[in-house]
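just leaving the lab so this will be short. what follows is a protein written twice so to speak, once as letters and once as structure tokens for the fold. can you read through it and tell me how you think this chain folds. thanks a lot i owe you, the record is right below.

___
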Amino acid sequence: MQHYPYITALTAGVIVILQMTLMIMTAMARGKHKQGLGDGGKPALIAHIRSHGNLAENAPIILIILGLLEIAGTSTTVISIAAVVFVIGRILHPVGLAMSHGTTTPRVIGVLSTMLVGMFGGIFLIYTIISKI
């Protein structure tokens, strides 16, 4: 039975707030560094731009996967866990970049959690659809 994807909608709401927060932080960093376009080779500005861009690159596909799994009737527990792991990872990623421009534990956890949710989601989506054919 199809239903409205409430978990995905809630996740999207949280992600869009995070995206807008990162956008504001990037705009403020651009003002601070007087850099309207590009990054000017400034590591702090690059970190803000990448935090914002990385979320923009990953969020749409993960939200689509979560929504399709939810509509397909996947366990709400599974969807909820995947959504929470993704959101936590996406919060940890910019935290890690703010700590250091190199590799940090929060950044690694952020990247790995996004990859885990993406790979799991993609495989589970393929399995779910094939099992319904």
